[in-house]
Design brief:
Layout lengths: L1 H9 L5 H14 L12 H9 L2 H16 L21 E2 L1 H7 L15 E4 L4 E7 L16 E2 L4 E5 L9 H7 L7 E7 L3 E2 L2 E2 L2 E13 L5 E6 L5 H7 L5
Parallel strand pairs: 3-6
Antiparallel strand pairs: 1-9, 2-3, 4-5, 5-10, 6-9, 7-8, 9-10
Helix pairs in contact: 1-4, 2-3, 2-5
Length: 238
């Protein structure tokens, strides 16, 4: 958050992580890549927003308020590459994909799935909505996802994923392949009429699996789920 505030002051990028952070900020405001909107760069697109002093002050006020009212302590990630993501912070899908470099200066591909495989980064990203309704999801996507305790998370794959598929094998053998699994979780699809953000639970390791099409996985998180979140992500707690 402090890096965002600093960028709003001088619009300077000091390193690769800050460039990814700027990508996140750009795709918070825009839904298309710079070229498709007539900008030469992400920096130009952001400058168009920030050149208005009123807009700039309002954005700074929002960031400052959020920074002072953080409900969870964010933690450093253990990813094998640069990223501004922080464990237990909340992000939109666009912000996550920007922070991972998938949305960048050149592209913003369409993304509508709940999982994303980034081959170049050697990561699988899971976007998990815990409380699903018939209105928002079809029977084939009514997965059974929940925290079993502070460390273990039960997650069900897409209905078409078989145990013998390359996708499932990549999940099961991710450690041997130096591949990382990232879990992002939200309680509901919408919050106050808008798309709800996802909380980054961090990376996780394979523990076991059962079933087929879909497959039920148990993952062990590298960071303990905070007490404030555990009731939300464990729907079996009464």
């Amino acid at each position: 958050m402090a890096s965002f505030l600093r960028y709003l002051e001088d619009e300077e990028v000091r390193n690769q992580e800050e460039q990814l952070m700027v990508n996140m900020l750009y795709y918070t405001f825009y839904r298309k890549s710079p070229e498709k909107l007539g900008f030469d760069s992400i920096a130009e697109g952001l400058h168009e927003v920030l050149k208005s002093n009123e807009m700039k002050k309002e954005i700074q006020a929002i960031f400052t308020y959020n920074y002072r009212h953080l409900e969870l302590v964010e933690k450093s990630h253990d990813l094998t590459f640069e990223s501004p993501l922080r464990v237990h912070s909340s992000y939109s899908t666009d912000q996550v994909l920007s922070a991972l470099g998938y949305y960048n200066e050149q592209q913003r591909p369409e993304f509508r799935e709940g999982v994303k495989y980034l081959k170049g980064k050697k990561v699988d990203v899971f976007f998990i909505t815990l409380n699903k309704s018939d209105k928002d999801f079809s029977p084939s996507t009514m997965y059974d996802d929940y925290a079993m305790n502070e460390w273990l998370f039960h997650w069900q794959s897409q209905s078409r994923t078989s145990v013998t598929s390359e996708t499932a094998q990549r999940y099961i053998h991710h450690r041997e392949r130096n591949h990382q699994i990232l879990l992002f979780v939200r309680e509901y699809k919408q919050e106050n009429g808008y798309a709800a953000p996802f909380t980054y639970l961090g990376t996780a390791d394979y523990v076991r699996h059962s079933g087929n099409k879909p497959i039920s996985f148990v993952w062990e998180l590298h960071e303990k789920i905070p007490a404030k979140l555990i009731v939300q992500v464990n729907k079996h707690i009464l």
